Amino acid sequence: MKMFAAAIGVALFAWTVASVGLATLAAQINQLGVMVPLMLALAAVRFVMQAAGWRLAMAARARPNLLQAVRAVIAGEAAGYLALGPISREPVKALMVSDRTPENISLSAAIVERIAYMGAATGLVTFGLMLVAVRASRADWIVPGLAVVMLIAGVWVVVKHRVPRMRSISYGAMTPAALACLVSLAILQEIINVIETYAVLAWLGASPTFESAVALEGLNRLANAPAQLIPGKLGVLELAGSAFAGILQLGNANGLTLVLARRVRSLAWTGVGILLLTTSASRRRSGRRNPALV
């Protein structure tokens, strides 16, 4: 099944690149220049925000320090990027801080933080759909966005009341200040994503507006759900990014280049995450052989 999904991803990737044209794409990528380092830096800021939000969802006495949390987030993102998305991402994060925080606490807190982020992402998708609907004079397109919002809210209610671990560590168990900070951090991560989209498109000469950057980022978020089924989301994100950029008159090639630049960014940070995982595993093995070293 995994091989079949990967084959679909490769086929979609090849078709998207061919439709844009190799020469055009090569010129676009060559033009990126300083944008890739900027994207790497923005990703680092998002990791810190994600780690901070994760810590807020834990009891103060059980929290790892911020550096430990950031390392765990980077390692978890690497695991999620390479295999099974959130199914592998959150457990790896919990494992990375297990010497400081019980895994049931860190895993539950990771779920809470991700739900906050999903809420912010859903808001962005809805806003993006609304902008596209207004541009296209199709108010009925707003309905799917509202349906997604209701679905996410429904999932949260079910998880909150059905999963025992979530009952002890949930939004309701957090102070109002901590909850406000957690939601704010999730929203800020999405704002950074929009800024990244705007900056790259402007650098490539697409002349984006703030509205078009929000719309493109929101539409690209819609592609993330089906993309989870394919390793590395290969092909699906490229196809969606190119198609949506074309719809918004930002240029298919610009949309594809944005996705590829983000893929380079993700692969670079995945390399860092793998290094952190390897180092952590080695330290744990050494600790088992010689407990005095732990």
Give a structural overview.
The chain has 294 residues and is mainly α. The protein has one domain (2-6, 34-281). It is built from 12 helices and no strands. The longest helix is centred in the C-terminal third of the chain and has 38 residues, at 252-289. It is globular, with a radius of gyration of 20 Å. The relative contact order is 0.15. The model is unreliable at 165-170 (pLDDT under 50).
Element-level helix/strand string:
HHHHHHHHHHHH
Q: Quote the average pLDDT.
A: 81
Share in helix: over 70%
Question: Biggest β-sheet, characterized?
Answer: none
How are the elements arranged and paired?
Elements: H1 2-20, H2 22-31, H3 35-56, H4 66-82, H5 86-96, H6 103-136, H7 142-162, H8 164-168, H9 176-203, H10 210-227, H11 236-247, H12 252-289
Quick overview:
This protein has helices spanning 2-20, 22-31, 35-56, 66-82, 86-96, 103-136, 142-162, 164-168, 176-203, 210-227, 236-247, 252-289. With 294 residues, the chain is mainly alpha-helical. The longest helix has 38 residues, at 252-289.
Which terms would index this structure?
0% strand; 294 residues; mainly alpha
